[in-house]
UniProtKB/TrEMBL annotation:
Gene3D superfamilies linked: 3.10.20.30, Fumarate reductase/succinate dehydrogenase, transmembrane subunit
Name listed for the protein in its UniProt record: 2Fe-2S ferredoxin-type domain-containing protein
Alphabetized CDD domains for the sequence: fer2 (cd00207)
SUPFAM superfamilies for this protein: 2Fe-2S ferredoxin-like, Fumarate reductase respiratory complex transmembrane subunits
Domain 2Fe-2S ferredoxin-type: 249-345
Coiled coil: none
GO cellular component, one term: membrane
Short name of any one Pfam family annotated for the protein: Fer2
Membrane-spanning intervals of the chain: 53-71, 83-103, 123-143, 163-183, 226-245
Length: 378
């Protein structure tokens, strides 16, 4: 439970930082002065000692927990959205490293270097346009990774439908406005570079100072890259070893409808379902949040791991007392397990929210997601 809280809290804090960064860029649709004013309000808290410590701690914790999750995966079977989020998450640090070094580290190696938004935009658009393209990619990668995670968490909350009406448009509008502001501000700094000799001289002087720090920055970037990819290789190796060891201990599950699943000892019922191609509902991708993967254990309960607090809270006391388990939480360690899937494979977030309503009785066996109004009317 503590790990889930840390992962969620660190992710939300990092997303808040990214949002303030993108909102500052969006101010470029008005003027460079607007960008500097927005930065003074939105970015200032992150520049304090407390803000920097929170940001760094959240980044380290979120990355470490993400890599640990990969290393301890019991199967490679996953939904397409989860695979996309995983790949995007691995790409964040390599893409962000040059920006972090320029903004937060370079002034330690270059005397009198001050990198504000106007100078940084000029660096990107005039002196190093390849970094301008990289920043566009960074925005898309970081925001997409964060949005997938946030949407997955909100969608299964009781208040998720109401919050989604506000959050979903914001998730789409924020990067679009930021990219437009980035481009418009780029036009403005290029015009200022051409028409304002004082601005041009100031930017060129700071660019020269930044260049003097490049050998040190490249050395740091190389160390960060080598360390990061070495850790990723170790994580992948741990994953591979775990998968190979589990291949030696197959287990079987019987499902309703005469279906059968075959998996590896230690996999959850849901993981065996995915591995065996057995249709199984799971709105939250197996995180124990939504309750849609629930099954009734017909036999072999002794071959499953005991129920934990996370599972008990999601199911509620009535279900937990009726041999009902979350397929994503119940791991299988022996043969003889037979289960009945209680919700149809097409169960959606709306049904997951309804299951969390204490006034709603547990869903009947194999209840499907409610049909859209247009189809019901037809």
């Amino acid at each position: 439970m503590a790990i889930r809280v840390v992962r969620l809290a660190s992710g939300l804090l990092l997303m808040a930082f990214v949002f303030t960064h993108l909102a500052t860029l969006a101010a470029g649709l008005m003027s460079l002065d607007a960008i500097n004013a927005a930065a003074g309000m939105l970015m200032a808290p992150w520049m304090t000692g407390v803000g920097t410590a929170l940001l760094a701690g959240s980044a380290v914790a979120h990355l470490a927990l993400g890599l640990a999750t990969i290393a301890t995966k019991r199967t490679l079977a996953m939904r397409r959205g989860d695979a996309v989020q995983l790949v995007l998450g691995l790409a964040v640090l390599p893409l962000l490293t040059p920006h972090i070094l320029t903004v937060r580290v370079a002034n330690a190696y270059a005397p009198d270097l001050e990198v504000d938004f106007a100078r940084l935009l000029t660096f990107y658009w005039h002196f190093a346009p390849v970094y301008a393209i990289q920043q566009l990619v960074v925005v898309l990668v970081v925001w997409s990774h964060a949005s997938i995670g946030l949407h997955g968490w909100i969608s299964v909350q009781r208040w998720g439908e109401r919050a989604g009406r506000l959050v979903t448009p914001l998730l789409f509008a924020t990067p679009i406005l930021a990219l437009l502001g980035f481009v418009e501000a780029g036009k403005q700094v290029l015009a200022a570079l051409r028409d304002d000799p004082a601005f041009a001289a100031d930017v060129e002087a700071h660019w020269a100072r930044l260049q003097s720090a490049q050998p040190s920055l490249r050395a740091i970037a190389g160390t960060v890259s080598l360390t990061y990819w070495s850790v990723v290789v170790l994580v992948v190796a741990a994953l591979a070893v775990g998968l190979l060891m589990r291949r030696r201990s197959p287990v079987h599950i019987r499902y309703d409808g005469g279906l059968e699943g075959v998996g590896l000892r230690g996999l959850s019922i849901l993981e065996i379902s995915r591995r065996s191609g057995v249709p199984h509902a799971s709105v939250c991708s197996g995180r124990g949040r939504c309750g849609t993967c629930r099954v009734r254990v017909l036999s072999g309960a002794q071959a499953l791991t005991p129920m934990q607090d996370v599972e008990r809270r999601t199911l509620g006391p009535a279900c937990a007392a009726d041999s009902v388990r979350l397929a994503c939480r119940a791991r299988v360690y022996d043969d003889g397990v037979a289960v009945e899937r209680l919700l149809a494979p097409d169960a959606d977030a709306a049904l997951a929210r309804r299951l969390k309503d204490p006034d709603v009785a547990p869903a009947p066996a194999m209840e499907a997601a409610p049909a859209p109004a247009t189809e019901a009317a037809a």
